[in-house]
Every structure is written in C-alpha cells, then in structure tokens.
Amino acid sequence: xxxxxxxxxxxxxxxxxxxxxxxxxxxxxxxxxxxxxxxxxxxxxxxxxxxxxxxxxxxxxxxxxxxxxxxxxxxxxxxxxxxxxxxxxxxxxxxxxxxxxxxxxxxxxxxxxxxxxxxxxxxxxxxxxxxxxxxxxxxxxxxxxxxxxxxxxxxxxxxxxxxxxxxxxxxxxxxxxxxxxxxxxxxxxxxxxxxxxxxxxxxxxxxxxxxxxxxxxxxxxxxxxxxxxxxxxxxxxxxxxxxxxxxxxxxxxxxxxxxxxxxxxxxxxxxxxxxxxxxxxxxxxxxxxxxxxxxxxxxxxxxxxxxxxxxxxxxxxxxxx
Length: 321
Ligand SMILES: Nc1ncnc2c1ncn2[C@@H]1O[C@H](COP(=O)(O)OP(=O)(O)OP(=O)(O)O)[C@@H](O)[C@H]1O
Ligand SMILES: [Mg+2]
Fold this sequence. Notes:
This protein has 321 residues and is of the alpha/beta class. The protein has 13 helices and ten strands. The chain has one domain (9-66, 78-306): P-loop containing nucleotide triphosphate hydrolases (Rossmann fold, 3-Layer(aba) Sandwich), CATH 3.40.50.300. The protein has helices spanning 3-23, 28-34, 103-110, 133-142, 150-153, 160-170, 176-189, 206-218, 236-253, 264-270, 288-293, 298-304, 308-311, and strands spanning 55-66, 75-87, 92-96, 118-123, 126-127, 143-146, 224-228, 256-260, 273-278, 281-287. The strands form two sheets. It has a six-stranded mixed sheet with strand order 6-7-8-3-9-10, sandwiched between helices. Strands 2-1-4-5 form a four-stranded antiparallel sheet, covered by helices on one side. It is globular and about 60 Å long. It starts with a helix and ends in a 10-residue tail after the last helix. The structure holds adenosine-5'-triphosphate and magnesium ion (MG).
C-alpha cells in the first residue's frame, strides 16, 4: 500500500474520534440550519504572487428558476450569491458544504457548463463570461473535468482506445503514430493494462472506468482538473486507489485542481486551500491547515466535526443506531 493511501486511512481513522461528539447527534443538521447565513461571502484571500489565475470567478451569482413556480412568478433558487474564487497554477482548492450549498454549480461555472446570472469569469486573464466557440476550445485544452459517475464522460459504445483517441483527433494533436503512443502513455499513467484498449466501458469495473475517464481528462495535458466527487460513486474498496492516483498525478503533472467531496478527511488531505460554503455563500476560506485547525466561522466548526453522512445527499437522515 502506498504512503498516500496509508496516510488517508490513518487520518480517516483519527477522524472517527474527532467526529464522535457530534456524529450521532440528530440535532447537528438542525444546528447547522440554525446558523444564520451571512449576507456576503468572505472576501477572496488568494495571495497575489504576480501569477495569473487559471480560472477567476469574480463575484459570480447564479440563479435558477425552478418549475414549481408559475410562468409569471417563477420560484428562484439562488445557488451562488457572489462567489470570488481564483484557482492558481498547481494548487488544489477543496470545496465543502452540505448538499445543495452550490459546490457543483461552482464547478460547472468554472468549466463553462453553467452560465452566470451576474459577475464575471476569467480564464487565464481573459474575460470568458460569454463564451465563444473559440473560448470553449481553448478552455477545453487547459481545463478538464472528472465527474462523479465515469459514465458521464465515457461513451458506452466506443472502445477505450477510441475514447482516448477522440480528444486527440478533435484537437489535432500530433501524427497518427504519436497519438497511438500518447494513448499507451495515458494508460500507463492511470495504471491500466494495454489489454483493455479494445474493451467497452461496460466490460470494465467502476474503478477501471474512472481510470479511463481520468486518462481521457489528461489526454490534452491540461493545467487544471475539476473533480466533482470523483470517488463517491465508486465501490468503497477502490476509492482510496483512485484518490491516490489523483494525488500522484496532481504532483507529477503539477496540475491545479478543484476538488469536491463529502469526505472531509479526503478534502483535508488533498487540498492546499479550503472554501466552505453555506447555501450559496462562502462562509470561510483559508489554507487547509488554518480552516481545519483554527476555524473561525461557527458553521465551519460544526460542519468539520460532523459525520460524512450529514454532508452526503444520498444518505439522508442518519440512522439512530
Ligand atoms: N438545473 C437546476 N435547476 C434548478 N435548481 C438547481 C439546478 N441545479 C442546481 N440547483 C439548485 O441549486 C442549489 C445548489 O445546487 P448544487 O448542485 O450546486 O449543490 P451541491 O453543493 O453540489 O450539492 P450536492 O452535495 O448534493 O452535490 C440547490 O438548491 C439545487 O437544488
Ligand atoms: Mg454536487
């Protein structure tokens, strides 16, 4: 077992102790809900070292109109109330908060899947709030996404070889021979055997599929990866391996990363900086060390001591046993 997996497991074991006092209390969810939500997000604290952020969300607001309202009076959900986030080269930002606080919306704005209602989005210094087709192509080369369910990124009817070839062809990378070599390199990076090249995604395990999705995400040598719960749809037994892989790749390739997880220990381990969100507002931000060891905000304090089940959308109410 690698050091990284061991460390995550050790810290996870420690966290059980840490989480105990609040873990089983049925009142934690209500206690979190009772904490008033600030009007404004805490200001951005990204150190200015002269470098240009890969992505910069400037006071981004996202409002969804929901179907439950009438045509004239649609119900509105304010998913982000004014988020400013700068993702710097090589750094990992961890996003935490309860289900529905706006983590995926933030990730989707960053990768261009979600337009903003107000505010600006900059990509390597360029205003891309209203993305052109050219902007999309440039961003697609530099920024990749790893989804919770690898099926989102993979085509069920394409062989692994063809899935990995596709982005290289679309972006016109190298000669045909160089592309074949690149596919072999990618497989090596994510620890898959070449024998899987002719397989279809359905013939592989969940963990292997996520490895293929990660290989595909890396194919254009991105500078940044947005990973929205990349391990939570996987079998518990392979989660640590996939996390381990992401951490190794991040270091080797000096990738920037936005990492979303319901598992606080994973976030703690992988992130340089942490952003804590409560219903669309950033309530705390800082280095991983500062947020975990010296949280200032009452919501953060309660949240970081809570069990993953409180954060996880699928687990619902805790079992009193
Ligand atoms: N397409 C949509 N239409 C309407 N409302 C939406 C849409 N997408 C998200 N929302 C709402 O916006 C808010 C933020 O959702 P988001 O998916 O960003 O939360 P999240 O933090 O990722 O939650 P989870 O931990 O459950 O994944 C929620 O209230 C959600 O119901
Ligand atoms: Mg989400």
